[in-house]
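JOB MANIFEST
job_type = single_chain_structure
chain_count = 1
residues = 153
[input]
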Amino acid sequence: MTKIFAKPADLIGAEGTQLGPTEWLLIDQERVNGFAEVTGDHQWIHVDVERAKAGPFGGTIAHGYLTMSLVNYFLPQLIEVQGFAHAVNVGADRLRFLAPVKVGSRIRGVGEIVGVEEVKGAIQSIVRVTVEIEGTDKPACVVDTISRYFPES
């Protein structure tokens, strides 16, 4: 269920708020191949299904950066901030890839607000997103996302 904040200032003091989980998302070979096309990363462990069967994971795996990029898919399912003039994605900190995402598995996002501060006339939040893999204890990745919300005048 999405946690909604009526205005950016409502984020102040929300550190420790747990977010999610999101719905599960299937990682299929078509998605992995599409990511390979747009990034030019055609390493066999991602795109060569036959060769990957004999590889270290017994099949193809998603690119780490594909998994990370899906954090942007999960964020709006985790948190919604309303009442701002505009917002910017400032970046990310502390990215870690902890386990491979095998093609055919499902992932989801869970989050926690780990920081909020006023910055240059805006409210900046840091949301730690953990991408979980269904049926495993170890997450695929963990990343701190940084968003800046500029309040309405």
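[summary]
The chain has a mean pLDDT of 97.
The domain at 3-151 is CATH 3.10.129.10 (Thiol Ester Dehydrase; Chain A).
exit_status = 0
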